[in-house]
Amino acid sequence: MGQQASRYLVVSDTVYTDGHGDPVRLVLNTRTSRVSTLGDKVARTLSHGDCGTLPAAVSDHLADLRILVPEGRDELTDVLDEQRARSRSAASLNYMLVPTGYCNLGCEYCGQVHVRGKSSANHRSAVRDRILRAVHRPSTEEIRIGWFGGEPLLAYPVIRDLAGQFVEACATAGVRYRSRLTTDGSELTMRKLRVLYEECGVDALCVTIDGFGDRHGRVLGVMADVVRQADEFPLLRLTIRGNLELANLDHVDAFIDVMVKAGLNHPMIEFDLRVVPSWTNDVAAPRVARQRFAAAEPRWLRRMHDVGMVTRTLIPGQLRGPICPAVTRSAEVISSSGAIFSCTEHPLVPQHEQGDVLELVEHADHDRQRPAGQYDDWHDRINRGEQSCAGCVFLPVCGGGCPKHWGEGKSPCPSYKFNIQQRLDLEAARAGLTPLLT
């Protein structure tokens, strides 16, 4: 059987010279997230699709890299089947918990309604019982708990109580336990962080920075303390996420300066810049913001690399699980209201709290997974051609993005779709390749 170029290849527009002075191009295989350096002639052959002219030894090498695949191979079906399998697995169960509906910041872009004390008297025990029952299912190999909100640390005693029981139950059952907490950092202290890390099993902390204003000074001080005492948190994955809107896109360079001045350009911290989604029907401003972000992002990434700030990988990584809770029955979101959802953008949003509740945690059957949500057939929709994702080279790493946003007419395509060539140029520079002057 003959070989053909995979449909999931991105070939660099730029021709570089390697250490021997030979012309080469970079080729990204989005099915493996691997970037290969290939001779210019071979790379052009892949782009033109005339792979039958390649020498046998070269073809064998490219097949090993999955750059060449058997002729007639239906790779779209392969990719969707792989993503379906991850979504249907019951081995890893993911619970996103909203321990309080209140937030002390109330960022303008947020569509949540933040009020105190909406949880019922039985809410905490129902959440506990549901997750402890899941721990002891025979199929369960891993429990993942995400704490977010609202501002979850306003419910710090609740987190400490529940997480302690989850950690103990998983240890007794021999089940892996992972936990991530997303916070604005306003309530974070070193004492709380030690408890979260040592007692509550939080091994991933995401601190969101909105607005890039002076109000974040105390938060950055705590982050600087964490860096100075990094040896106390050897397994902690720490992310600082800069939430960008159209109004603050021009402040990213200042943000970088502030992070460096605070000493946060440290290997312990990964930085993630992203345009925050719109929670309203206004699609114009977010669309412009995404366009401007994609155009400027390569320069920011280069600068951050130059000053020692660790960023999310230049090259999009492989999907390790479902793209989001909304496409898998093994994940669910439990709001402080007691409602179980499939989508992380539904809790605390009035129309969703009223119209998209799958069931109430206090009435749920804890021996089964959540009821079907509106996006559980996501991969079938792509396969039927209902989404443009079916023809996109980035489907293996993106998975289609956010089903909810597609349904609302808001494209959730990642920035790398629009600036991958600049990213490949940065990758080439880091590998010691130089653009070929013509």
Automatic annotation (TrEMBL):
Domain of life: Bacteria
Co-factor requirement: [4Fe-4S] cluster
Gene3D superfamilies according to UniProt: Aldolase class I
UniProt key word Iron: yes
Alphabetized UniProt keyword annotations: Iron, Iron-sulfur, Metal-binding, S-adenosyl-L-methionine
Ranges where the Radical SAM core domain occurs: 98-220
Name of the molecule in the record: Radical SAM/SPASM domain-containing protein
Record organism: Kutzneria chonburiensis
